[in-house]
Amino acid sequence: MNALAATSRNFRRAARLLDLDPKLEKSLLIPFREIKVECTIPMDDGKLASFVGFRVQHDNARGPMKGGIRYHPEVDPDEVNALAQLMTWKTAVAAVPYGGAKGGIGCNPGELSRSELERLTRVFTQKIHDLIGTHTDVPAPDMGTNAQTMAWMLDEYSKFHGHSPAVVTGKPIDLGGSLGRDAATGRGVMFATEALLAEYGKSISGSTFVIQGFGNVGSWAAQLIHEKGGKILALGDVTGSIRNKAGIDIPALMKHRNDGGALKDFHGAEVMDSAELLVHECDVLIPCALGGVLNKENAPDVKAKFIIEAANHPTDPEADEILAKKGVIVLPDIYANSGGVIVSYFEWVQNIQGFMWDEEKVNNELEKYMRSGFHHTKAMCKSLDCDLRMGAFTLGVNRVARATLLRGWEA
Ligand SMILES: NC(=O)c1ccc[n+]([C@@H]2O[C@H](COP(=O)([O-])OP(=O)(O)OC[C@H]3O[C@@H](n4cnc5c(N)ncnc54)[C@H](O)[C@@H]3O)[C@@H](O)[C@H]2O)c1
């Protein structure tokens, strides 16, 4: 099932649990605006190359639309639509005053030079500058993009609209980025994991972990879980996977990676088959890479007792059903990875106020928001007798539906 079908299916199940008016249900599902732009740039060899860029603005009932920009060869309109919709429910679960959006360019950033990436980002920004804005739609980094991409977007946007630091989040600190934003999604994953394990009388210290993805989210989640005493038995990225029964020394692995080493060349672990990673023995499995990685083929073999969805949409609905029957507890993406958008909100607030917070304040506020999101999700599970995914979806959908109705929807 593709990402859009799966997300819409979860939304419809939540709408039914909430007994939502069918007309409102239909209206909430349809995106506010879908943008598709052609971006042609000169490559370094002088030849022209064309790429397709997307921005889907899903809903703005609760505030400006918010969502990442992804550079990946598999970016397509359906996936961007699904991720934009997920952002609408995620910002509502996180209780930050935003709607949802998502964007991307179908390209392989690893094959583009820095100057080609800069030209592509600037052309994309030129094509969408009149549709984004501090109080309209605020992009952020996602897979294949980073603080530098946001710096180029900010600079290009400011040529048209004047200096506008709050038009993007996830910026470099020197351009108004927030302290703690880089680690925020991984830190939020750590807080979410703590909250879930505590419900079962467990803690990070004394639990074993497997992590897929060692980029921004995966590497921060791994470092913070390691700091809290969690034992990471295996992890992998696009280049391969490694394991160590005694637990991987994450600070040593970070040093190895920051020195340019590949995972497979790390001396503190043995190389393993990447196909085995998601079904490796552990207490907690944390997918931090692509969507759809847990499916009906591998779900029956999953050995983890808990899955924390740090990636967006890592679990197919078919896998969800299989995992539920096996008694595996899945903490859904729209709550588990909301740390990034929560600190993006703090960054936006700091830019608008012109007053920067210290890192301790950012991390303390993030912890409060993550704990509150968990508490409210659990309350929905209790009142509607549903699992955590439906608890989070009903929480988010209900908040967006209420805002839509309050604005006056039927006149
Ligand atoms: N960065 C954020 O703030 C943020 C916030 C919320 C959700 N997310 C989601 O988290 C996930 C990861 O995002 P990120 O920002 O860390 O991206 P990233 O580009 O920094 O890292 C992605 C990681 O996934 C790995 N990967 C890619 N293909 C893989 C494959 N086939 N098998 C195994 N590993 C593979 C890459 O090697 C890399 O380690 C995405 O689903 C993204 O949408 C990110």
Automatic annotation (TrEMBL):
It comes from the Eukaryota. The record marks 142 as: Important for catalysis. Pfam families: ELFV_dehydrog (PF00208), ELFV_dehydrog_N (PF02812). The keyword Nucleotide-binding applies. Keywords: NAD, Nucleotide-binding, Oxidoreductase. Substrate binds at residues 66, 90, 344. The active site is at 102 (proton donor). Gene3D superfamilies: Leucine Dehydrogenase, chain A, domain 1, NAD(P)-binding Rossmann-like Domain. One of its GO terms (biological process) is L-glutamate catabolic process. NAD(+) binds at residues 185, 216. SMART domains: ELFV_dehydrog (SM00839). Residues 178-408 form the Glutamate/phenylalanine/leucine/valine/L-tryptophan dehydrogenase C-terminal domain. GO terms for cellular component: mitochondrion. SUPFAM superfamilies: Aminoacid dehydrogenase-like, N-terminal domain, NAD(P)-binding Rossmann-fold domains. It catalyses: L-glutamate + NADP(+) + H2O = 2-oxoglutarate + NH4(+) + NADPH + H(+); L-glutamate + NAD(+) + H2O = 2-oxoglutarate + NH4(+) + NADH + H(+). One of its GO terms (molecular function) is glutamate dehydrogenase (NAD+) activity. Belongs to the Glu/Leu/Phe/Val dehydrogenases family. This is Glutamate dehydrogenase. It comes from Panicum virgatum (Blackwell switchgrass).
